[in-house]
Design brief:
Layout (H helix, E strand, L loop, with lengths): L1 H7 L4 E4 L14 H26 L7 E7 L1 H4 L5 H21 L5 E7 L15 E2 L2 E2 L4 H10 L7 H12 L10 E4 L6
Parallel strand pairs: 1-2, 2-3, 3-6
Antiparallel strand pairs: 4-5
Length: 187
């Protein structure tokens, strides 16, 4: 945060976008699988917001915080207790920051995405390896998920639009909310 302020003069918009999966059914999940997801997704978001506090918690600051959640944090998902718990935690964190920082004019919202085409949602069989594990979703599950939402995944450009909206003055009176951007994956 200090580097951003040194370079740009202020900190007005913070987007927390972290995701990592280490999938396993709950009875087979290791502490390491749990810890890495919760640390990166939830603790990382907490640490970024805490670091932004000295710049954003000022009278009439009016900044924007946008936290990236997931629909699975709202609905649950088999084999992803660590990821879903961390993303659900993002929702609670968002609502608390919205209440605590409202006196400074800072809004804090979350976006719960559904299926966005990234290396995280690519076919696992041909997926990229990150931190020693193949990324992605098994093809048969991925195909079923896509079929449920009409066969089309959001691109990163599609996913950027709600972030841009929440970062704009058009959202000045929206805070503590979770914007569901899932093409009907969660209703």
């Amino acid at each position: 945060m200090d580097t951003a302020v040194d370079k740009f003069g202020d900190l007005n918009i913070l987007v927390n976008n972290a995701g990592l999966s280490r999938d396993a059914l709950i009875h087979k999940m290791t502490d390491a699988q749990w810890d890495i997801c919760v640390d990166i997704i939830l603790k990382g978001t907490f640490n970024c917001i805490r670091s932004a506090a000295k710049y954003m918690r000022k009278p009439r600051h009016g900044g924007k915080i946008i936290n990236i959640a997931s629909v699975v944090g709202l609905m649950g998902n088999i084999g992803q207790i660590n990821y879903t718990a961390a993303k659900a935690g993002i929702v609670g964190l968002t609502k608390t920051v919205a209440r605590e920082w409202a006196p400074f004019g800072v809004t804090c919202n979350a976006i719960a995405y559904g299926f966005v085409h990234t290396r995280f949602t690519a076919e696992k069989e041909t997926g990229e390896e990150v931190a020693g594990e193949k990324m992605g979703i098994p093809k048969r599950i991925r195909d079923r998920m896509l079929q449920e939402i009409g066969g089309k995944a959001m691109t990163s450009d599609d996913a950027a639009k709600p972030v841009l909206f929440l970062a704009s003055a058009d959202s000045d009176f929206i805070t503590g909310d979770v914007l569901n951007v899932s093409a009907g994956m969660y209703m």
